[in-house]
Automatic annotation (TrEMBL):
Bilayer-spanning residue ranges: none
InterPro entries (UniProt xref): HAD-like_hydrolase, HAD-like_sf, HAD-SF_hydro_IA, HAD_sf
Pfam families xref list: Hydrolase
One GO-annotated biological process of the protein: small molecule metabolic process
Gene Ontology terms, MF aspect: metal ion binding; phosphatase activity
Keywords annotated in UniProt: Hydrolase, Magnesium, Metal-binding
Protein name: Haloacid dehalogenase-like hydrolase
Family to which the UniProt record says this protein belongs: Belongs to the HAD-like hydrolase superfamily.
């Protein structure tokens, strides 16, 4: 995708999962652990449960529901098994512990953040809630990169609406004290990461992680469109002339 104007911004905001954090393994591993746990208390085999979990995941994410307690209640309903509140809570704990164990920073993140800071950009995260107040912020803190950022907006915890709604981006602009056209947002999902920031006048770049991405996602019918697509954050440094 070709940029047809010079991008002159003072702040760079990032999505979190799949943009800064490589959670592809974490997501799979956490699902598998839950399937294992559920197979030990039901008669279903793990593959069947895994399929149910994936279906519920897609359905829940499409309506902006990130609370794993709700997810696992839905899984139990689909499997037609009764789970107590304690059992659900245990699953949620095991799920996030497994997730943390297998998530890691993409290797281009630290060098890019350091360079952007050196070039004087203000940095932030705009991410959706993990479904429970404080959970996502705690995860970011434990991942050890919160100190790099001037602001962290957890949509759904700090705001009423989650991405793709513009509210979390309005909140970020308010904290920065900048107009939208002085800010750029980098995310990995066209459906959730483009409409919100575009609605408030930000530039938007989509990063293709895992060499795969939903490129089916990116086509001529997409509206609004991202301003550019990159394969690595290092390309962002070039776009922002921070070299
Ligand atoms: Mg993401």
């Amino acid at each position: 995708m070709v940029l047809n104007e010079k991008i002159n911004v003072r702040a760079v905001l990032f999505d979190y999962d799949d943009t800064i954090m490589d959670v592809s393994e974490a997501r799979n591993y956490a699902r598998q652990v839950i399937a294992y746990e559920l197979s030990s208390i039901t008669n279903f085999d793990q593959d069947h449960i895994l399929g149910v979990i994936k279906d519920v995941e897609i359905r829940m994410e499409s309506v902006g529901q990130f609370d794993r307690r709700i997810w696992f209640k839905e899984v139990a309903k689909a499997l037609n098994v009764e789970l107590s509140i304690d059992e659900i809570n245990k699953l949620v704990r095991v799920y996030w512990d497994s997730w943390r164990l297998r998530s890691r920073l993409f290797p281009d993140v630290m060098p890019t953040l350091s360079e952007l800071r050196r070039c004087g950009f203000r940095l932030g995260i705009v991410t959706n809630t993990d479904g429970e107040p404080g959970l996502k912020r705690g995860r970011i803190r434990r991942d050890g990169i919160d100190e790099f950022f001037d602001l962290i907006v957890v949509a759904g915890d700090d705001t009423k609406y989650v991405k793709p709604h513009p509210e979390p981006f309005i909140r970020a602009l308010h904290i920065l004290g900048m107009p939208g056209n002085e800010v750029i947002y980098i995310g990995d999902r066209v459906s959730t990461d483009v409409p919100g920031p575009k609605a408030v006048g930000m530039y938007v770049g989509i990063i293709k992680r895992y060499n795969s991405l939903n490129t089916g996602d990116i086509n001529d019918n997409i509206n609004p469109k991202p301003d550019f697509i990159i394969n690595s954050l290092f390309e962002l440094l070039r776009i922002l002339e921070c070299l």
